[in-house]
Amino acid sequence: TYHNEHFMNKKLLGGMQNEIEKPKYAMEMKALIRLCGNIIEEDELKKQLEQSNGNVSQVVEKIISKLMNQNIKESKEIEYTSDKFKREKEKVEVGEIKPGINLQGYCINEKCLASKAKLPIWINIGFKNISFISDKTCLICPDCKLSTITSIIKALFYNSEYSIRASDDLLPLKDNNYQVSYTIKSGLSYELNANKIRQHAKNIEDLRERSEYAMNSIEIKNLIIELQRYEITV
Ligand SMILES: [Zn+2]
Predict the structure, then answer these.
(1) What's the CA-to-centroid distance between 188 and ligand 1, angstroms?
(2) Residues with Cβ within 5 Å of ion ligand 1?
(3) Does 204 reside within a domain?
(4) What spacing in Å lies between the alpha carbon of 142 and ligand 1's midpoint?
(5) How far apart are the first and last CA of the chain?
(6) What ipTM was estimated for this complex?
(7) pLDDT per position as a tens digit, 122-178
(8) Which of 5, 103, 134, 158 is the most exposed place for a label (fewest CB within 10 A)?
């Protein structure tokens, strides 16, 4: 093919650069950089493009599948670092942060250390629904084990797909996050829910579906239109 000959010629020249000649796959590179230059190094894009013999859509598909694998790895890393995170948290606050819903409140048991220190303490609820009135709670204190946590000041979702709704909210707020916290206002009632974050690509089939979806996305369509303007067939 043309590209192989081109490659051979370049090799025979022994690294000498032809000034007039455009760099190999210049237009394809330009398109790829526009599309994913902010997430993938230019050198890596060039390498991928050469490996795919200049087939832009193949490179894009590869990148998408690579990114999804990264997502899975990242969520695993979060689990590994959770211990470290807990230790850091313990320096300034009482209690542990665990996956799911965490509520921070005050214990009123006078004999409780957390209460004596006047420090708010974290209570782990886990992955479930919970509703409460922020200043009328009756939760078990992780420190003294009595139901003496009577007020909540903060909610933290850790590694969760969650929703939170205060009585003055029209709609619940839904999101998923590694770690996000909300101030709990005094006197309002709240409904909280947390579920485990679903794995990003369960299997190859799912990945293929996602790639196809991505290939049909507006960004890719625009890229293809642009490529066609330069008479590159995708
Ligand atoms: Zn206590």
Answers:
(1) 23
(2) 107, 109, 112, 114, 141, 143-144
(3) no
(4) 7
(5) 17
(6) 0.99
(7) 999 999 999 999 999 999 999 899 999 999 999 999 999 999 999 998 899 999 888
(8) 5
